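Incident log, structure service

09:12 report received: a user says their structure output differs between two submissions of the same chain.
09:20 pulled the input from the user's history:
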Amino acid sequence: MTHVFATSPQSGESPAPSAGMPHVAGTPGPNHAGHEQVVFCQDAQTGLRAIIAIYSTALGPALGGTRFYPYESEDAALTDALNLSRAMAYKNALAGLDLGGGKAVILGDPARGKSEALLRAYGRFVESLNGRYITACDIGTYSEDMDIVARECSHVTGRTVPNGGAGDSSVLTALGVYEGMRACADHAFGSTSLAGRLVGVEGVGKVGHRLVEHLTQAGARVVIWDVDAPAMAAALAANPAAEAAASRADLLARPLDVYAPCAMGGALDDDTVATLSARVVCGGANNQLAHAGIDKLLADRGILYAPDYLVNSGGVIQVADELAGFHFERAKARAEQIFATTKKLFALADEEGVPPAVAADRLAERRMAEVGRLRAIWLGD
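09:34 re-ran on a clean worker, output below:
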């Protein structure tokens, strides 16, 4: 297990790397700036190769899911872990949670490489961090997997209901995206109703599938697309009123009112923004902006963007509730507040004359600084 450490931040400051931080092979130099800790984990016998990235513990232990994915390279996996862990810190801060941000990735194909031994080996590595990182589900991992990880580790959320967990976190993730979309509709169209609106959903996996259900029940016209044909078929079977696009290009070419990216990150690149007809972008995918500056391009085109880490925070709200003994109605009520937070964010963005993504970052950073500072107050023995 290889660690990359940064010095702990001073109270109220964002995490920053120490002057003596070593450069680790495969680490893209400046991209890990700001992270407190990056851990490379390997167990040859089970085939485990994993990376755990902790961006900030200013508000508390770093909570974030474990992604099991066949990355093309270790560099790609590291980049994903770094980006996702930073987003989790901002997401948890904006959601009002007393938790920092972290993320883990396991390199490999979950359909072929996942095993009890591998998951338990991974749990041992998480346990070795002594509670600095709390894991949960993400792409390629499920509540049943977290039950296995928990046999070796006490810092696990997103467990199955019979084992005291919240179960599938996509339930409240999708609800939060839907509530955020209602706030977007109010801001862009003057009404929270999505009835009759054409919504394009890209990616109908765990979150996208549930989002389609919310939208069709609300009377929206829904068109979907996914690279996974079985996922498309399942979503259409469950929601006969939805329509399938022939391709991603076909989906984006439709006269959409709302575009909901719910697949992998980077969906909003220059070409997509240039061709997009939608007035609103609001979806469940993480790290939707392909590069810095995309938020301004969206604003310049008059497209209202709901920052992903705000509207998709229902999932982390759900699993975080397990830490206090899971109560679904309590977690659901908190996820429904994403509507009010999104409206507050748009008002702040308009007041300060900045894109919503910038306003969201400012709100999250303010809370990390103001509340994180309080941890420096000495309470005595």
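09:41 both user submissions now match this output. Likely a transient worker issue. Closing.
09:42 reviewer note: The chain has two domains: 2-163, 170-363. Residues 74-94 form the longest helix (21 residues).
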